[in-house]
Prior knowledge:
By secondary structure, the protein is of the alpha+beta class. The protein is about 35% helix and about 25% strand. The longest helix is centred in the N-terminal third of the chain and has 19 residues, at about 45-65. Glycyl-adenosine-5'-phosphate binds next to strand 10, strand 13, strand 16 and helix 12.
Amino acid sequence: xxxxxxxxxxxxxxxxxxxxxxxxxxxxxxxxxxxxxxxxxxxxxxxxxxxxxxxxxxxxxxxxxxxxxxxxxxxxxxxxxxxxxxxxxxxxxxxxxxxxxxxxxxxxxxxxxxxxxxxxxxxxxxxxxxxxxxxxxxxxxxxxxxxxxxxxxxxxxxxxxxxxxxxxxxxxxxxxxxxxxxxxxxxxxxxxxxxxxxxxxxxxxxxxxxxxxxxxxxxxxxxxxxxxxxxxxxxxxxxxxxxxxxxxxxxxxxxxxxxxxxxxxxxxxxxxxxxxxxxxxxxxxxxxxxxxxxxxxxxxxxxxxxxxxxxxxxxxxxxxxxxxxxxxxxxxxxxxxxxxxxxxxxxxxxxxxxxxxxxxxxxxxxxxxxxxxxxxxxxxxxxxxxxxxxxxxxxxxxxxxxxxxxxxxxxxxxxxxxxxxxxxxxxxxxxxxxxxxxxxxxxxxxxxxxxxxxxxxxxxxxxxxxxxxxxxxxxxxxxxxxxxxxxxxxxxxx
Length: 494
Ligand code: GAP
């Protein structure tokens, strides 16, 4: 639930991050040459590296650091009954309202949040707070008539028709559907998965048996998920196609609170290890529990537009396995020989959005600082991304394009490219080349200069301090490795 009601698109800091993401090859609007597709985005050369590093960190921290967690990669398409069992066909809805004059459809809660933002910017924060509280109460009770009446009483008008001629508020299912096979009829309808979790639940027995897992154990997965989100205005915060990193931890019934608390701790520490400050992270207990949960909390990060969810931790009980057991008529039981009993395991889920974590890391690392004195004073922009996550680990520069320096620089590049993602550049002044690397967050720039010819040393210029240290060419691999290894983050988590 929103507790910060500043409209994200009005936020200057956010605008700078979005502009930076596009200008420096991190994120582009999908199909931009055709004016784009709303809430769908593509990752550019540095974006894909950063996102892959975040996913890699998550995967390694789940699989390598926990002897009892294994991974899978399930298909996006699943048997349609999966979504009946999971509750998504019946309960995966957003409250929508149409304007009868413009025929435009809106999320009812977002219309009310926008009205609250208007109160806020008009200097009426009390009114804003009261409206949000009223709306939250109605949504928790699923009182759609009450939500409709609130929209009307607040005289909220359609931005297109400027009328308050609203339909009833109705629930709108967020799943995308398509057809499988050659005949397009309802019988062949199939959904694009709205969460990756169900691929794990339907494989519970396969994995438990084939990997000989004993409770408690976890199954982790990274993959695409799809939701027909109606509100699309927070850059990559709310996408229609996005990636989830989910882990289901199967436990004995009755032990869920212990494991829930444990996973809350493990997960928030994971975020901190990526360099996200404590002050910008918090837990937020759910007011309204999802249809599958008996306890749920969000880890929220303070984006430029307020604290927002980046990961959910849910106690899902035996809801999913129990329903799959009923609909598939296959026993989803586990025989626990320690207590000599069979049961349908309970589940604690950790569910993070790779794109939201990417957005968090990018927002958190964006820096604009004054450097220099007097006439030389200027603003320095750079990305202070944790070196273990940085898209490019080092850039190799010959100081000048002559005197044999490019040859040495290329040899260094060729030797190190097996270990690190590198950039080689020899054009423009070295100052401009440093600036360019700062803008994509490269932690180390290696310069090969005339002294290299004499004593086989090069400089490493560090991104954050801009300080330069001289090191032997032979030591370069270790020097860079010690600074940029993802293992540094893993050791902090372990
Ligand atoms: N399996 C549970 C589940 O899907 P969720 O809270 O709906 O729970 C989990 O989603 C995470 O997935 C969120 O914390 C968020 O990071 C990410 N996520 C959800 N919807 C998203 C969207 N439309 N765009 C980007 N990320 C999204």
